Amino acid sequence: MRIVLVGPPGAGKGTQAAYLAKNLSIPHISTGDLFRANISQGTDLGKQARAYMDAGQLVPDEVTIGMAKDRMAQPDAVNGFLLDGFPRNVGQAEALDEMLRSASLKLDAVLDLEVPEDEVVKRIAGRRICRNDSAHVFHVTYNPPETEGVCDACGGELYQRDDDSEETVRTRLEVYHTQTEPIIDYYRAQGLVVTISALGKVTDVTERAMEALKSSDEG
């Protein structure tokens, strides 16, 4: 299957993408991984991206599109892929459609993870990270430490990242509504959108997603 995963920040896209890709035996292709791989390998696209990032500028769509095109051409993506973070806007969605058309391929589904805005804010703004080891992550509501402000694993101080503050989260949501959400209508016009609730346990959401994708494929 060829799937695009969309949803607001805090919807659990990365977590669900990993589970779904494993269950479907297709590669999980995330924008973050594309950028890291191209920059670390010193590809031409990676050098271009680095130049824009070092200058504090947004990486142009054509660079991101080029990275995605190269990755989707790899042997492990021949039978499908799950795109996470790409396309990020309608222009990128149109470019993806053109890429697939030129290879006589098409998307099978666009999985839309739906989460109420207040829940997104609660999920992200409640995160606390250990200063000693960023892999130790807690949540004031869903996974609180035994002692407030102290990491259970190593006793380090827990803190809230600047980009996890409520104000920053709401700004990120506004960017999502303005830039990314329109691709849902774009794909809905093609009959590709499958919307599921991303509330509840991770395993429940994965099960919900798999069922929705199965129904979409059969349809």
From TrEMBL:
This is Adenylate kinase. The gene is adk. Its main location: cytoplasm. It is found in: Cytoplasm. ATP binds at G10, A11, G12, K13, G14, T15, R127, V137, F138, G200. It comes from Streptomyces clavifer. Pathway: Purine metabolism; AMP biosynthesis via salvage pathway; AMP from ADP: step 1/1. Consists of three domains, a large central CORE domain and two small peripheral domains, NMPbind and LID, which undergo movements during catalysis. The LID domain closes over the site of phosphoryl transfer upon ATP binding. Assembling and dissambling the active center during each catalytic cycle provides an effective means to prevent ATP hydrolysis. Residues 127-163 form the Adenylate kinase active site lid domain. PROSITE patterns: ADENYLATE_KINASE (PS00113).
